[in-house]
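Reading a protein record of the kind used here takes only a little practice. Think of the row as the fold of the chain written in a discrete alphabet. A record is reproduced here so that you can trace the correspondence yourselves:
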Amino acid sequence: MVFESQFGILKVTVVQAKDLKGGDLLNTQDAYCKVSIDVPIKEAENTKETDLYAKKYPLLQKTQVVSKKDPIWQETLEFRVRTVPKASVLYIECHDKNMMNDCLLGEGSCVFETDTTEWIQDFVITLKNKHSKGTIKLVVHYQPRSVVHDVKEGIVSEIDRVKREAIKTIVDFAADTAKKAV
């Protein structure tokens, strides 16, 4: 029997924030969010990733900057999560992008469970900060997968790349042969 290490893909769609307070002197924001799974954001910022999947699924991810009082991102970030332990924590921070130092507008977290079944859930998180409050809406989609599935996906991708290279080589050879024949 083959042992399959189970994991899943967690798609976190940062939908929008409401009632953000703080930021610069005019109380306007150039807002963006930082998101991490199972590792607090401050710790994730200082962690050097050595995981094989770190390029495709970074530990810490950021949204684009949106310049609006109640920003709407509709941006999806993808994370690789293990199914064991079953409970995971999503950490989120909302920042105001400034020329000198970015300002923390608020932070929050939510707990979710990973297992062998797919699910989608909406979360509205109250952001906390000593100067401000606001909410952020997320749509979280969990898809269970296995290492075997991931390896198979990688092999198929590599086969497609080799096919493209072979076709290009054949076309180039045919073109060169045609030129010499003329």
Summary: The chain has a mean pLDDT of 83. The CA atoms of residues 148 and 154 lie 10 Å apart.
